[in-house]
Design brief:
It is built from 17 helices and twelve strands. With 363 residues, the protein is an alpha/beta fold. The chain folds into three domains: 83 residues, DNA polymerase, domain 1; 180 residues, Rossmann fold, CATH 3.40.50; 54 residues, Winged helix-like DNA-binding domain superfamily/Winged helix DNA-binding domain (Arc Repressor Mutant, subunit A, Orthogonal Bundle), CATH 1.10.10.
Length: 363
């Protein structure tokens, strides 16, 4: 159920021209969000920075059309099992309380308790990510998720989707932050939302039917940065949204990690810039856990035992490498058809992974 406080915050959030800073000013001046609506136009006008235009907007917040809009949004939320929460609700994420530009309300679909997770790591990067970048992200996300770290990302194609895929692989809670309303995505996006909400949650600061706009995604990025204690950038160009998120994370006092890559590929240029500017270079997920003091003693994993000398030779050749099938065949003194049969069995067993371009690596 939506609290009365959340309903009052919703009304304020819908008033045109009232941003989060103005809202905070008004709440502080009048003592509570509910008290704002009990004031006269003269009382509003007496506040610093409030002019006739804003007074007229506040007056519209008490109108019948505004009440109808609020009622409609609340009905949408109830019908779709969307939680509407505000800054004063107990379930509000603690780290967002300290962010001056945090939204007045959040729409949450899924498991509310995820918002109170003790350990959160944001993972972001390029939409047009490399196969290696997506592989790294999914593996690291799965690894940290198994260590009770809640992975936060933006559900965009590329690195974001790989991050969510890793938390789903671990059957662990994760949080997706949208730049549009929870009911406004494509069919594919709505399916992703449903999958993520089973163990984690999906959040937005926009009413459920709000369609995506370019300006909403930088806004979304501040939430990703604000929710987590640390941010990992896997890939990103010099002008990518990932760098905006990283700068916001630094402004919030969060730790920022970056994965290095080839200097010949511009998709890594943003990470290299971040490292030059003081971000922490990350070469594996274990380093991040140790730096954040999130490390737990891992149970001894079951180690795959090769069924033949050839399997063992292939696994040794792939350890720490990504190899093309031709190079692997040459190293193992096999023909490609002979090798392919063994590779297929290892792939089906989850021992190795096939990458685009007939390349393979250890899982």
């Amino acid at each position: 159920m939506t609290s009365e406080l959340a309903t009052a915050y919703l009304r304020l959030s819908l008033v045109p021209g009232v941003g989060v800073y103005t809202a905070r000013q008004l709440i502080e001046a009048f003592g509570s969000v509910a008290a704002i609506w009990q004031q006269s136009a003269q009382d509003w006008l007496a506040q610093e920075g409030v002019g006739p235009k804003l007074v007229a907007a506040l007056a519209s917040g008490m109108s019948a059309p505004m009440q109808q809009r609020c009622d409609y949004i609340l009905q949408q939320c109830e019908a779709a099992n969307i939680h509407l929460i505000c800054q004063e609700d107990d379930v509000w994420p603690e780290r967002l309380r300290a962010c001056a530009d945090a939204p007045l309300v959040l729409y949450v679909y899924g498991q509310l308790e995820c918002l109170k997770a003790e350990k959160m790591l944001a993972m972001v990067g390029a939409r047009k990510a490399s196969a290696e970048g997506k592989l790294i992200t999914r593996r690291w996300s799965c690894f940290v998720s198994k260590q009770d770290v809640c992975v936060v990302s933006g559900m965009a194609p590329g690195i974001d989707s790989a991050a969510h895929g890793g938390s789903l692989d671990a059957k662990s809670a994760g949080i997706a932050v949208l730049g549009y309303g929870l009911k406004a995505g494509s069919q594919q996006q709505l399916k992703q939302i449903e999958a993520l909400a089973e163990t984690g949650c999906v959040i937005s600061e926009y009413p459920p039917e709000t369609i995506a706009k370019a300006g909403y995604f930088p806004q979304r990025n501040r939430l990703i940065a604000g929710l987590a204690q640390a941010l990992l950038v896997v890939e990103g160009g010099l002008k990518s949204g990932s760098l905006i998120t990283a700068r916001q994370a630094l402004a919030y006092g969060r730790d920022v990690f970056a994965v290095p890559g080839s200097v010949l590929n511009d998709v890594h240029a943003g990470c290299h810039q971040l490292i030059q500017d003081g971000a922490i270079l990350a070469t594996n997920a274990e380093e991040i856990l140790q730096y954040m003091h999130w490390h737990q003693s891992l149970s001894k994993a079951e180690v795959y035992q090769p069924t033949s000398d050839l399997e063992a030779k292939i696994i040794i050749a792939l350890r720490g490498e990504i190899m093309h099938v031709d190079s692997l065949a040459e190293d193992c003194s096999l023909t490609v058809p002979e090798l392919s049969t063994i590779l297929l069995a290892l792939e089906l067993g989850g021992v190795i992974e096939k990458l685009p371009g007939s390349r393979y690596t250890i899982s």
